[in-house]
Amino acid sequence: MMKNGFPRGRSAVVAAATHGMGEAPGMSSMDLAAAASVKALDQIGLRPADVDGVFVALPDDFMSGLGLAEYLGISPRVTDNNRTGGSAFMTHAMLAALALDAGECDVALIAYGSNQRSAAGSLIKSMRESPYESRYRLPRPVGAYALAASRYCHEYGLKREQLGEVALAARAWAQRNPDAFARDSLTMDAYLSARMIADPLSVRDCCLVTDGAAALVMVRADRARDLARKPVYLLGAAAATEHREITGMPDLTRTAARLSGPRALAQAGVRASDIDVVQLYDAFTINTLLFLEDLGFCGKGEAGGFVEGGRIGPGGSLPVNTNGGGLSCVHPGMYGLFAMVEAVEQLMGRADGRQVEDAQLALAHGNGGEFSSQATVIFGTEETL
């Protein structure tokens, strides 16, 4: 059995920033990632030249780690261009923590940017077509997630109104976030009457298509207190994958989050019930339900009932996707880093208008491909060390 050697609490996030949320005409993915990076570094009085670890996965540049380093004038000792989709950023944080603890770098920058909305379809394809699935002309990615949703409905009797609870909660949080792209009201009637895209998922079950960028800066814990007023410590991080194509998923109602989540929580020394605020990659409403179950917040088949009555929205007992998530805040191709930024903002006490009171522990979970790659990180304040 592999020994758990994760360096709990020995690295910390000291800065977090976003840029170009929603629409950023005239900016490339590299421009956006660089702008968010400089914003984050400015918060703590560092320059790009101070960075020696670069972790980035741009949607249109296979060598984006080298590209961003050159763009910003960084000469990194460590680079990582993980290509596992929206979970890549959680694994960036995991690898950055390991590199920092080993002394391979001193300042780690995690960055992402995409102009998916303003590029109007001109971005290169990020996934090859499957020779086994393409003949069936499944609309990607929504069709893949609809298959999972359909199977879940069949096995557990999920109601569309319960999927709607996820969409409404995300919109309610977004209305408290001035940076969110979709802030207009959303009612259950409007949700239920929305145009169907791939049964049972309607347009209201699908994430936004936006521009946007985000960045985090990580350092070792002993330096963190000199740079940030309230550092946020990485307590646990784990990743898992069981398939690539949706037809290779062993069970359409169970994701590999059931593997990554317990490992990350065990590293952190906490339980799901200890978490104060949760950030989940909600490319589609079904994601939120499956992840709540697989990460241990409720039992299998119970998520539909669990989210009823506004439980995951403002004022609910489990704040989920407090920025509005990919459904209502931002989704520029990949959302994972924005989930981590929101987790950090909450623990730093900087989530104006949507701040969760006395938040000490946060979980952020990323999803890549078609439920293909899962990664979970646990953040905590100094009080949790």
UniProtKB/TrEMBL annotation:
Residues 238-381 form the Thiolase C-terminal domain. InterPro entries: Thiolase, Thiolase-like, Thiolase_C_2. One of its GO terms (molecular function) is acetyl-CoA C-acyltransferase activity. Signal peptide: none annotated. NCBIfam families: PRK06158.1. This is Thiolase. It comes from Achromobacter pestifer.
